[in-house]
């Protein structure tokens, strides 16, 4: 309900990066409306967006949005970032991704060596107006940037790469390692930012890296974007495995099934700790194969009488790939529209990860040149985003495509919580225009890319780690992941369900502890060009403005007498309609006038005293009258 002041912010806010200036430029302007490249998940493009109406959400590729925060006892932030005892221990600190789906970032430290696995972003909650996204807080490495030996990226989704342009240059530009598609996506995004060149190092699944004391290997995992991998980190305390996002798929789109033999081989050599994806840990059973999804899609395509319009996420590259394959197989013509989707397809083609026969692809401006039953349009906007391609087609605002009765529109992704109404509205429009709408839950992005309970058990069985550390997800997802390990008889004390920044230490005998201490992981907000410069105060103001609007009181006073030279002006925005609330505004004016006139001379000579009085008194008054708390902005002008 309105009016209760100072609704506590859900999370404490703040922050700074380790050091240094904000990145030099904002990303290139894309088609304004587009979901950014491979955003999985993203709705908030990199472009700053202002105002309250920020459109619907995109999924954080897979994640749902769930209330943040772990509940229960939480670790304490350490006063200083040293532990004394830990000098020759291997320290694992997950800086982000343990309390949310997003800003995944894990730090591993031993002596003078630090490596990172992933450096993602998180999209803001509803109550963070104006914030583009949140990046991991790396203040822990402040002063030891030179120790950072490298940043390893598991795959190209934004919740794993999004922090790179902001953080990596601040750490002295350490090398960024990843498979080719991952690096191509990072490179493209960096180009959109402009300026800084990253030190990108392509790896293969077969190679071994030595980064300081760490020996690193990789293994292939399935997900919903090609080139997803897990990381094996050999340390002085034992082998630590980070899975990235994963599922097992024996018939994936890229024909590289999960290699259970390799996992068993890694496991047979002894594994100290397994850090593993929790995103779908609360779902029973096995994850379905891409193959099954492909069959379902194909059945829909075969049945459709007229044109097919399929909306999906640009970052869901496996799905994009499937649509291209099915179009080819059925001898249809495919037009792709949407900046991010086109960019991703170009990257895939360039890397030869995707065969796109010339005879299949047509331009979006050519769709009318072919018989209806031959045409497929694949585009962004399945979340009902206002200005994305699908909405523009539906609302007749697209230059080349509009709905023709008999079109089949396929939503190939689930509705992200918070977007329901936008999607419903979009469906209403589509049906009204005569389209047949298919919202097929099996093609759900949620049920696409992540391990479910039985997959997790199989992974545990193969790897047999001493310690199990659920990562990637809200606290409840981590708990479900832990439950799977408990069901497999992993001892409770060997399962570390940690919060962001909570420190794990492993000694040379392979004994691990989850310390009570945590390092600083408070939000680092990115807002337009600014990184970390929007803090609690600014955010609170934005929240107040977005909830109850504001009232400006302009009082003009004589410099010599300190008296009002005219009646105060009252301006209101987002609070009440001035014309309809004449009496209220008149009362405010009178009260302001009386207040200033009744002030003694001392008060009148100090503008701040008067301003505070106006703020307090009028704030109280408006609250009693309206039960709202607009921001009150007194402006005193001396003439
Ligand atoms: Zn992912
Ligand atoms: Zn992810």
List strands and helices in order, with pairings:
Elements: E1 76-77, E2 90-96, E3 105-110, E4 113-119, E5 133-135, E6 148-152, H1 158-161, H2 164-167, E7 176-178, H3 180-193, E8 200-202, E9 209-211, E10 214-220, E11 229-235, E12 238-242, H4 260-268, E13 271-277, H5 290-303, E14 308-311, H6 317-329, E15 333-337, H7 339-350, E16 361-362, E17 375-379, H8 389-394, E18 408-411, H9 420-432, E19 436-439, H10 453-463, E20 465-471, H11 475-487, E21 502-506, E22 512-518, E23 524-527, E24 530-531, H12 536-548, E25 550-557, E26 569-573, H13 582-598, H14 601-605, H15 607-626, E27 631-638
Parallel strand pairs: 1-22, 4-6, 6-7, 7-8, 12-13, 13-20, 14-17, 14-18, 15-16, 15-17, 18-19, 25-27
Antiparallel strand pairs: 2-3, 2-21, 3-4, 5-23, 9-10, 10-11, 11-12, 21-22, 23-24, 25-26
Helix pairs in contact: 4-10, 5-6, 10-11, 13-15
Bound molecules: zinc ion (2 copies).
Question: How is this structure best described in words?
Answer:
With 639 residues, the chain is an alpha/beta fold. The protein contains 15 helices and 27 strands. The strands form five sheets. It has a nine-stranded mixed beta sheet with strand order 1-22-21-2-3-4-6-7-8. A six-stranded mixed beta sheet has the order 9-10-11-12-13-20. The protein has a six-stranded parallel beta sheet with strand order 16-15-17-14-18-19, with helices on both faces. A hairpin with a 2-residue loop joins β3 and β4. Residues 1-71 have low confidence and may be disordered. One zinc ion binds at residues 61, 155, 157, 223, 245, 449. Residues 61, 104, 157, 159-160, 245, 472 line the site of one zinc ion.
């Amino acid at each position: 309900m309105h009016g209760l002041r100072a609704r506590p912010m859900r999370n404490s806010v703040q922050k700074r990066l380790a050091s240094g200036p904000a990145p030099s430029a904002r990303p290139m302007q894309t088609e304004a409306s587009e979901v950014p490249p491979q955003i999985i998940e993203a709705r908030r493009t990199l472009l700053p967006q202002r105002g309250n109406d920020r459109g619907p959400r995109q999924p954080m590729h897979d994640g749902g949005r769930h209330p943040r925060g772990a509940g229960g006892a939480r670790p304490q932030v350490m006063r200083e970032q040293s532990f004394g005892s830990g000098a020759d221990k291997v320290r694992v600190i997950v800086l982000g991704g343990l309390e949310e789906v997003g800003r995944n970032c894990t730090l591993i430290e031993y002596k003078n060596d630090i490596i990172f696995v992933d450096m993602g972003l998180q999209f803001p909650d509803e109550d963070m107006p104006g914030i583009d996204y949140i990046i991991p807080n790396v203040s822990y490495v402040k002063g030891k940037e030179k120790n950072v030996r490298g940043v390893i990226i598991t795959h190209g989704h934004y919740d794993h790469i999004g922090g790179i342009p902001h953080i990596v240059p601040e750490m002295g530009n350490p090398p960024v390692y990843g498979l080719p598609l991952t690096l191509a996506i990072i490179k493209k995004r960096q180009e959109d930012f402009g300026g800084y060149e990253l030190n990108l190092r392509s790896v293969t699944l077969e190679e071994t890296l030595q980064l300081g004391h760490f020996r690193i290997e990789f293994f292939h995992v399935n997900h919903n974007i090609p080139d997803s991998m897990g990381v094996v980190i050999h340390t002085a305390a034992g082998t630590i495995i980070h899975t990235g996002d994963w599922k097992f798929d024996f018939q994936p789109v890229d024909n590289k099934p999960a290699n259970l033999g390799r996992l068993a081989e890694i496991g047979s050599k002894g594994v100290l700790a397994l850090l593993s994806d929790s995103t779908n840990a609360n779902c029973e059973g096995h994850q379905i194969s891409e193959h099954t999804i492909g069959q379902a899609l194909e059945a829909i395509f075969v049945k459709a009488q007229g044109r097919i319009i399929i909306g999906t996420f640009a970052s869901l590259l496996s799905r994009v790939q499937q649509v291209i394959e099915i179009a080819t197989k059925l001898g249809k013509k495919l037009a792709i529209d949407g900046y991010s989707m086109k960019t991703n397809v170009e990257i895939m083609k360039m890397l030869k990860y995707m065969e796109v026969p010339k005879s299949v692809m047509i331009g979006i401006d050519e769709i009318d040149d072919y018989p209806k039953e031959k045409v497929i349009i694949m585009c962004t906007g399945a979340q009902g985003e206002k200005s994305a391609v699908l909405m523009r087609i539906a609302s007749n605002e697209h230059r080349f495509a509009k709905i023709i009765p008999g079109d089949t529109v396929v939503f190939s992704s689930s509705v992200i919580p918070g977007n329901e109404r936008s999607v419903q509205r979009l469906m209403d429009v589509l049906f009204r225009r005569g389209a047949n709408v298919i919202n097929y839950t099996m093609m759900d992005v949620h049920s696409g890319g992540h391990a479910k309970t039985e997959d997790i058990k199989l992974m545990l069985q193969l790897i047999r780690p001493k310690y199990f550390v659920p990562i990637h997800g809200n606290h409840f997802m981590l708990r479900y992941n832990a439950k799977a390990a408990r069901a497999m008889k992993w001892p409770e004390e060997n399962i570390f369900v940690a919060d962001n920044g909570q420190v794990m230490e492993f000694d040379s005998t392979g004994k691990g502890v989850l310390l009570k201490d945590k390092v600083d992981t408070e939000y680092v907000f990115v807002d337009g060009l600014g990184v970390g410069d929007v803090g609690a105060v600014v955010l609170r103001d934005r929240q107040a403005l977005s909830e109850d609007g504001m009232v400006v009181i302009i009082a003009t006073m004589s410099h010599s007498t300190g008296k009002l030279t005219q009646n105060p002006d009252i301006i209101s925005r987002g609070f009440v309609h001035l014309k309809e609330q004449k009496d209220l505004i008149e009362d405010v004016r009178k009260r302001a006038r009386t207040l200033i006139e009744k002030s003694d001379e001392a008060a009148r000579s100090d503008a701040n005293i008067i301003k505070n009085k106006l703020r307090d008194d009028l704030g109280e008054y408006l609250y009693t009258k309206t039960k709202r708390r607009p921001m009150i902005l007194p402006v005193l002008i001396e003439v």
